[in-house]
Design goal:
- This protein is 40% helix and 13% strand.
- By secondary structure, it is α/β, with parallel strands linked by helices.
- The strands form 3 sheets. Strands 1, 2, 5, 6, 7, 8 and 9 form a 7-stranded mixed beta sheet that branches.
- The radius of gyration is 25 Å and the shape is globular.
- The N terminus is likely disordered.
- This is 3-oxoacyl-[acyl-carrier-protein] synthase.
């Protein structure tokens, strides 16, 4: 008896199967409509070259003090190298100034014994320790240390960094060169991963909401805050700890920026004059370190628990000028797009902005392009005297991945303090708003 024909054994044509399946299924319903929720700032925390803590940093900032100093060979963190190599490396650096976090056990100093040196902190590099310290202050300022499981599940962390722990990488490379690989710490990888700053904060407090770490160089802190705000707006969390952290004052980081001709070299003998945003004598930025953390919260959630509200987060704009790996486009298109989008999302007109905290790092090209972009956006408002503009990097240097977060706190405090002043004085002010440019 003849077997079945070959045609009978073949499957139906694929196109016919797809038509048959698709015709038998109902189309998906549209996703549920999402009404963006309002986001407010309820807690602040920072570790900066001006000091450890918001109160210390803010007081020194408005008093006109500077956190920039001359560096020494010990600042290069070349612990596994001999003295001759450390000294030779130091001598080769063209920039010998930096904005370092003051360390010690006194008020306003970063206590390394508390955040870095205990036995359980072997997996915590300095940039992680800075983030833990800043986040702790912000959470206590917000009075948000939840114990209920539901509250922990709706609290997340969004803290990013620029480079991680380069000094750990340098030490590990030296071990390989000297054939001492077996001495490499099992905590090497957790110490260098940038997302571990966010991870350690979440583990310390048991937060099980979104855990996020932006890595976008100098825009990291601003992106981390903007991303966190959107997570709250769309209902992923009710509370987010957001910010940036950085600790890149080490031999390899400084040498790398020196080789790219990004750092200042003219003011090694007068460190406090070296970071000079928008000044005609600027010649490069000053590398700095630290961390900034803010607690963002859904408005009704904050009001229900009686939280102190510093400011409202209104909008967030991002862009890329698609031009060069380090240089902005000469017309400032990237900054113009970012500011335009932030204003549009905020539903705020440019003339309603009272203060701009500029990114201006003290580089000849960058500051000029940014000034042009600000003038383009704010036009007569920028030149009328009604718009306050400053770059606080003159006091703290460039904190790289932490810059956007620390300077966001400065902007919030500037508006918050002025608002409090207007509430005391017999003066009415209908609108107070700020724009952080990163």
């Amino acid at each position: 008896m003849a077997g079945p024909s070959r045609r009978m054994l073949l499957s139906p044509p694929l196109s016919r199967c797809i038509r048959r399946i698709s015709s038998s299924l109902e189309p998906f319903e549209p996703p549920p409509a999402v009404t963006p929720r309002r986001v407010v700032v309820t807690g602040l925390g920072m570790v900066t070259p001006l000091g450890c803590g918001v109160e210390t940093t803010w007081k020194r900032l408005i008093d006109g003090e500077c956190g920039i100093r001359a560096i020494t060979p010990e600042d290069l963190k070349m612990n596994n190298f001999d003295g001759e190599t450390r000294l030779h490396t130091f001598e080769q650096l063209t920039s010998k100034v930096a904005a370092t976090v003051p360390r010690g056990t006194n008020q306003g100093e970063f206590n390394e014994e508390l955040w870095l040196n205990s036995k359980e902190h072997r997996s915590i590099a300095r940039f992680i320790g800075y983030a833990l310290c800043a986040a702790d202050e912000a959470l206590r300022d917000a009075n948000w240390l939840p114990t209920e499981q539901e509250q922990k599940e709706m609290t997340g962390v969004s803290i990013g960094g620029g480079t991680g722990s380069i000094s750990d990488i340098l030490d590990a490379a030296q071990m390989i060169c000297e054939k001492r690989l077996r001495r490499l710490s099992p905590f090497f990888i957790p110490r260098i991963l940038i997302n571990m700053a966010s991870g350690h904060v979440s583990m310390k407090y048991g937060f099980q909401g979104p855990n996020h770490a932006a890595v976008t160089a100098c825009a990291t802190g601003a992106h981390s805050i903007g991303d966190a705000a959107r997570m709250i707006q769309f209902g992923d969390a009710n509370v987010m700890v957001a910010g940036g952290t950085e600790s890149s004052i080490d031999a390899l980081s400084i040498a790398g920026f020196c080789r790219s001709r990004a750092l200042t070299t003219k003011y090694n003998s007068c460190p406090e004059e070296s970071s000079r945003p928008f000044d005609c004598g600027r010649d490069g930025f000053v590398i700095g370190e630290g961390s900034g953390a803010i607690v963002l919260e859904e408005l009704e959630h904050a009001k229900k628990r009686g939280a102190k509200i510093y400011a409202e987060f209104r909008g967030y704009g991002m862009s890329g000028d698609a031009y060069h790996i380090t240089q902005p486009h000469g017309d400032g298109k990237g900054a113009i797009l970012a500011m335009t989008r932030a204003l549009k999302q905020s539903n705020v007109h440019a003339n309603q902005v009272d203060y701009v905290n500029a990114h201006a790092t003290s580089t000849p090209l960058g500051d000029a392009v940014e000034a042009k972009a600000i003038k383009t956006i704010f036009s007569d408002h920028a030149s009328s005297g009604a718009l306050a503009l400053s770059s606080t990097k003159g006091a703290i240097g460039h904190l790289l991945g932490a810059a956007g977060a620390v300077e966001a706190i400065f902007a919030v405090l500037a508006i918050h303090k002025v608002r409090n002043l207007y509430s005391i004085l017999p003066i009415k002010r209908s609108n107070l708003s700020f724009l952080l440019l990163k």
